Amino acid sequence: xxxxxxxxxxxxxxxxxxxMPTISINPAYAQQKVKWMKFEDAVAAxxxxxxxxxxxxxxxxxxxxxxxxxDTFSDTGVxxxxxxxxxxxxxxxESKATHNLGDRQISSPELAASLAMVKxxxxxxxxxxxxxxxxxxxxxxxxxxxKPDFMKERLLFFADNKHLKSTGKGxVKWMKFDDAVAAxxxxxxxxxxxxxxxxxxxxxxxxxDTFSDGAVxxxxxxxxxxxxxxxxxxxxxxxxxxxMSSAELSAILATGKSGEKYxxxxxxxxxxxxxxxTRIQGAQKPDLMAPVLQFFGENHYLDKSWDAYxxxxxxxxxxxxxxx
Length: 324
Known about the structure:
Blueprint: H1 2-24, H2 39-48, E1 52-58, H3 63-72, H4 76-85, E2 86-92, E3 98-101, E4 104-107, H5 108-115, E5 128-132, E6 138-143, H6 148-159, H7 177-186, E7 190-196, H8 201-210, H9 214-223, E8 224-230, E9 236-239, E10 242-245, H10 246-255, E11 266-270, E12 276-281, H11 286-297, H12 306-322
Parallel strand pairs: 1-2, 7-8
Antiparallel strand pairs: 1-5, 3-4, 5-6, 7-11, 9-10, 11-12
Helix pairs in contact: 4-6, 9-11
């Protein structure tokens, strides 16, 4: 009787031992990776089954790109969303590879610069990620390393089309730069500068889709002195006790140096003393522009990081959407 019990326990132990490999590898996606595609293959797949395209623009020398791969694109939640809801693309910004897009052939550096909305060879920060919608229009640009929680939030936000929920129309009360600086001296507010050019297509998209948004216009009108600054105009402005053209001022605000090259559109947030707080590049959508403006306009940047504030903001937005 004693030995039969021991034998039974031994058989049970052996059975569990045999099952252990199955148990250890079983969670879905535990061994899976993002199914990266070529850009043209993602475009072709989109035509058959509409999904958004996610593009990770990188270079072999980019350390933060490697951290992004190691810490974020290895996360099971990020992997699942990218594989099931997007067509994920890896794009080497310095590769000699070419891409056939319709009747046009374009190099990887050209494609990367186009997606990041900069001229080829001009200030492409890495890593840069872009989300393109089903109509091949830019939805979002994400720059720099992002942690898995932030990435999952943004990916789901666009996959679920929450960015399409309109907040109504609004009109920004644009000012001249000198007038904004003078107004801030009398009644301190931050200054928001939109640097543009007449030939810049993405600047027009920004005007049409973002600055016309009710929430964005309300924040700019109530918390800032909003300025339109023509990057090619010779109109004279005063900055840092110097007289200079709008073109020279645009370069200084966009890069910190006179005469430096930069991409358009570029937006700059200045504090109440006209000191630069941050620069925003590209045609950002209203759902991202609004929290960024509030982050600085309401002085959240003084006591918390952008990542912490963004998580709170989007958690609240999601709760509001789920509980009308």
